[in-house]
Amino acid sequence: MAEILPIKAWRYHEQYTQRIEELTSPLFDVVSAKQREALYANPLNSIHLSVPKGDEPALHAQRLLEEWKQQQVIVQDQIPGIYVYYQYFKFPGQDVESCRKGFIAQIKAYDWDENMVLRHENTIAKAVNDRTSLLHATQFQSSPTHGLYEDPLYQLEPYMDAAIANPIYDLEDYQGVREVLGVIHDVPTIRKFLEVIGEKQIILADGHHRYEGAIAYRKAMSEANPEHTGEEGYNYHMMYFTNALSKNLRILPTHRIFSGIGLSEEQILEKSASWFVVKKLHDVEEISELILQKQWAFGLVFAKNAYKIRLIPEKIKEMAVEIPEVLKTVDLMVLHYFFIDKVLGIPMQEQRFSENIDYERNLHRCLGAVEEGKADCAVITKDISMNQVLDVCKSGYTMPQKSTYFYPKTLSGLLFASVEESEFSFPYQVFRP
């Protein structure tokens, strides 16, 4: 079902191998402003390609990319490969180390209605536009999105375990996660990967904006090419694939921060009482524990006060009839429908575009934004289960934007993928089963 190909990857020149830790960068939305500035201070860090700065960031990335190619800061592997990517980490409170096993390859940028790649959350329009503009300017991908496939037999693990035994890179990242990258060039083995994934649907775990940008780019390029075949480089997109049935997949919560709402604390509480049971808390640190085991429960934080709010159970019947049952079980859907829409007055259809909503994974940064007066209030959420993600994806519906945060995040800069035709082209038929 889903067609993948090996990658003719671009990587930092081997002279930089010992410095690879300082050249890689986390995804932009998971680091603080101070961490970002430290990354930008290094002129060779991959963040300059993944999230370029300046008045014309896409043009800046294009110029820098050409400069890096000419100076051989980055060089291209001439033989396509499947890049095996393992992440070793510990969950909070656990002594046993976990390992998330996966591999990086190219996948066709299937449109959503083709039902090959399934999404589970909405996107923010501006972020998609930024990703599309960057692709048009550079024809280059600096970080993979994250896709899930379901394989109860774990058919690919023996091949990945063998490849990771002789890694290209072995480093510790900003999260304290050990990141290990290996490569498979063996043609029969690569065919096995294409064969296994060719029978699967892919569930997009992370990178909805980058993937949607790839769809928009493919459409624009194919419409402009009268000789379009579907085999051109612009049809493909770099993705990190992991088995959804692995025990080492963890989804962390993403909290909501609100500013410029135009409502006082008293007004928000008064309106909330029509939909939620509201309980004042004595200690904001109690929030996570109090909402953990409760359906439709959230923490509501103001500068001086904090509350637990939980949807009045009978109110779930007032959710629009067109919303399916599978979404009514998702806490974040309840939050966006009843609190953000009904209480704060930001309609569901406008929330993707709203500048009044921000998203923060770090609880302390979230609370700090409110305490320091940078935001009016914040809503503390809890994680959702992998089963919920799979159920929503397969239903054809989507959850609100920023619903999931798969931990750990992938790194930018371990390898890059070009979709520029002269750099992408290869007789890929030798790999096809």
Automatic annotation (TrEMBL):
Pfam assignment, any one: DUF1015
InterPro entries for this protein: UCP033563
PANTHER family per UniProt: DUF1015 DOMAIN-CONTAINING PROTEIN, LMO2823 PROTEIN
Record's protein name: DUF1015 domain-containing protein
